[in-house]
Design a protein that fits this description.
It is a single chain. By secondary structure, the chain is an alpha/beta fold. Helix content is 30%, strand content 18%. It has helices at 6-12, 21-25, 59-81, 85-101, 103-106, 126-134, 222-237, 282-287, and strands at residues 2-5, 48-51, 110-113, 145-151, 158-163, 169-171, 177-179, 201-204, 208-209, 215-216, 243-247, 270-273, 276-279. The strands form 4 sheets. It has a 7-stranded mixed beta sheet with strand order 5-4-3-8-11-12-13. A two-stranded antiparallel sheet has the order 1-2. The radius of gyration is 19 Å and the shape is globular. The structure holds the ligand Nc1nc2c(c(=O)[nH]1)N(C=O)[C@@H](CNc1ccc(C(=O)N[C@@H](CCC(=O)O)C(=O)O)cc1)CN2 and adenosine-5'-triphosphate. Adenosine-5'-triphosphate is lined by residues 62-63, 66, 69, 156, 216-224, 265. Ligand FFO is lined by residues 77, 114-117, 120, 122, 149, 151, 158, 174, 176, 205, 217-218, 220, 222-223.
Length: 288
């Protein structure tokens, strides 16, 4: 185990966009620093972090990380529940307007987005979705193609299916709106993984995030599994990587090191917060 200061890592990294990211991108487990505190800025440059060489994970280590994840989820759920309703509405508006006005959103032609669920206190996506479904893009008059999640089973399998109307959605057992895999005419809905075209943009949900690209989901492993599969396919087909952008209320943004991760967790490229876009990965810095 090697202890490095952020300053040392900056010196080592050729193009370090976030100090701790190279640690996780090299598929090592990152051990979090507690306590969990929302932050409004990056940690001081002198803060020590832990870099680990590639190690194999014992079940005991994994159990400990998953336990820490559950603790973080529980803390963030509580702060989301305690959010003032008018602040929530204000943040929903700010986040959605930022997305709708962004060039990377305007130019995207094929995207996957989540259908927000009120009872899960997720950032609202209804305005973004209705814009996509109602209005062709004013610059090109081309319609965006929208795919949304459909949970296939309890083993982290999720598909992204094409929808054209909000009427295509029905509430599932988790009370989340999702498309029936077969439409009203009895036709199977188009599945992103079967379509032979790349996705430009993923709009992702989650419970907590940090400014280095770590994302904590709701514990099903659905998104990580899906994104990994999509990334493998994109590589195979030589497609450009999609932008993976998560939407986050302010209490969901945690201090660097507070989000426990395993090598299976997929890093996001950027966050949209009530204060604007936080580009994280080199691809986001270039494109956003
Ligand atoms: N809007 C939305 N759609 C989504 C997801 C999501 O996070 N948000 N998913 C992302 O994977 C998939 C569904 N996965 C889900 C996993 C857990 C829960 C949920 O209700 N969790 C409760 C806790 C349940 C428990 O601990 O037993 C919660 O978080 O409060 C919902 C959806 C696909 N669709
Ligand atoms: N102790 C454990 N050891 C190994 N795997 C576990 C353990 N606990 C949970 N899992 C598995 O890990 C997966 C959940 O991973 P994780 O908690 O990282 O998901 P998430 O990031 O919250 O979810 P999502 O990707 O859907 O947003 C599930 O498939 C679950 O079965």
């Amino acid at each position: 185990m090697v202890l490095l200061t952020t300053r040392e890592l900056v010196m080592i990294g050729a193009r370090v966009f976030c100090i701790t990211t190279p640690v996780q991108r090299s598929s090592s487990i990152f051990f979090p620093n507690f306590p969990i505190r929302p932050v409004s800025r990056l940690s001081p440059a002198t803060r020590p972090i832990v870099a680990m060489s590639t190690i194999s994970k014992t079940q005991e280590e994994l159990d400990s990380i998953f336990k820490q994840k559950r603790i973080v989820r529980s803390t963030v759920r509580k702060s989301l529940k305690a959010m003032d309703p008018s602040l929530r509405i204000q943040q929903d508006d700010a986040i959605q307007n930022t997305v709708l006005e962004a060039p990377w959103f305007k130019s995207c032609r094929r995207l996957c987005a989540y259908i927000s669920c009120r009872s899960l206190n997720e950032v609202d996506t209804s305005k973004i979705l209705s814009e996509i479904l109602q209005h062709p893009d004013s610059n090109t008059t081309a319609q965006k193609k929208l795919y949304v999640p459909w949970v296939e089973d309890k083993n982290s399998n999720m598909r992204m299916l094409h929808i054209s109307h909000m009427d295509d959605l029905v509430a599932n057992s988790m009370n989340i709106l999702e498309p029936a895999p077969v439409d009203a005419q009895g036709n199977e809905r188009e599945d992103v993984m079967q379509a032979d075209e790349p996705i430009d943009l993923f709009i992702l949900p989650g419970l907590a995030f940090d400014r280095c690209g770590r994302r904590l989901g709701r514990g099903g492993g659905y998104y990580d599994t899906f994104l990994r599969r999509y990334q493998d396919r994109a590589k195979e087909k030589d497609w450009r990587n999609p932008l993976m952008v998560a939407l986050s209320y302010s209490p969901q943004i945690l201090e660097e090191g507070s989000i426990p991760v395993t090598p299976n967790d997929v890093l996001i490229d950027a966050l949209v917060t009530p204060s604007g876009v936080v580009p994280i990965s080199p691809c986001a810095i270039e494109r956003m």
